[in-house]
Amino acid sequence: MLKRSLSLLMMLLILCCALGSYADQGEDYALPLDMDFACYEPNPSCFTADGYQDESLTVRTEHRKENGVIFDLIWFTVKHPSQLRTLTAGTPNEPQIELVSRMSRYVHAVAAINGEYYLQRDRGILVYRQGVLYRNEPDPRKDILVIDSAGDFHVFCSEDKEQELAAYTEAGGDIVNAFSFGPALVRDGEAVQVRPDYFFNADQRLPRSVIAQVGPLSYVFVVAEGKKKDSKGCTHQEMADFMAGLQVQTAYNLDGGQSTVLMFNSTYFLDFYREMEREQSDMVFVTTAVDPKTWRK
Fold first, then answer.
1. Cα–Cα distance between 274 and 271 in angstroms, integer?
2. Residue of 117, 118, 114 whose CA lies nearest to 138
3. Would you call 80 helix, strand, or coil by DSSP?
4. pLDDT for the residue numbered 11
5. To the nearest whole number, what is the mean pLDDT of the chain?
6. Of 94, 171, 200, 262, which has the highest C-beta tally within 10 A?
7. Quick check: is 57 in a domain?
8. Cβ(261)–Cβ(100) under 8 Å?
9. Residue 83 lies in a domain
10. CA-CA distances (angstroms) from residue 11 to 1, 16, 22, 210?
11. Per-residue pLDDT tens for 170-218?
């Protein structure tokens, strides 16, 4: 019995050491939350025709066509949650807009997707960017996405958002980025039944932009192309069903339509995005955590 207990204790100690080493390794890739941090330039030699890989980041691009819709996907896994970031065109609530393509190049984004264009709405939203509170008026009718300091996604869908968020923070939850567009599309791995009267033309087939968490530090940017002869776009429910089919844990709809844009290697994922891009207020992106000094030696 004593031998078995000692063996179990040794196994636990080994596991704890391994987990500690993994956590320490992740912390080696931590980046400043400050939005003024320009981020590191990715190593050009780490790009391939359909992806990117260095010691801090793995990216894979993909195209799919289902039910008459073309989907563009960028899958990525990071070593530290600070590599999944947001950027705004100006300081908090400043009425300044910019092309996502230009913002993407400014911060050397390996991949980027448009945000929620929060400046279009004067009130009724909760907005955090890189740990900074921009707006604090959650609309009970709109779903909220919170990304915490561990890089995990949390969606809030009840009509009492203030109580729901208060319970989250009282339980120790924190907020690095928060969005108030929506709707939530996948929750706990299951497709959400989206209200047909949700905002943003829920029942029309349009271009859609989505961010999703697959698992710990693993994510995907997805765009449904629309308003094209070969791709009709999606309703919110069709987008929710598609995202659930990808086996993601949480998926959330961002601004779509003309705001839809997807970038890879600081250039347009497809010319489709170049043709329709418009200036907007914010984007979501992923960056390498490898300092160029290490590969320029």
1. 5
2. 118
3. coil
4. 38
5. 89
6. 262
7. yes
8. yes
9. yes
10. 15, 9, 17, 41
11. 999 999 999 999 999 999 999 999 998 899 989 999 999 999 999 999 9
Residue 167 placed within a domain: yes
The Cα 255–Cα 276 span in angstroms is 14
Q: Which residues of the chain have pLDDT under 70?
A: 1-25, 270
Domain count, the chain: 1
φ and ψ at residue 171, rounded to 5 degrees: -85, 5
Determine the Cα–Cα distance for residues 241 and 118; give it in Å rounded to an integer.
26
pLDDT of the residue at 24: 47
Q: Which two tokens stand for residue 131?
A: 């740990």
**Segments forming the whole domain that contains residue 53:** 31-294
What share of the chain in percent tops pLDDT 90? 75
For residue 231, is it within any domain? Answer: yes
pLDDT number for residue 114: 96
Angle (nearest 5°) at CA 38 between 37 and 41: 135
| Residue indicated by tokens 């230009």 | 102
DSSP-assigned beta bridge partners for residue 64: 71
Does the N-terminal peptide bond of residue 32 adopt cis geometry, omega within 30 degrees of 0?
Answer: no
Cβ–Cβ contacts within 10 Å for residue 41, how many? 17
Tokens 């780490």, residue located? 46
- C-alpha 107/C-alpha 238 separation (Å) is 33
Query: How many Å apart are CA 94 and CA 106, to the nearest integer?
Result: 19
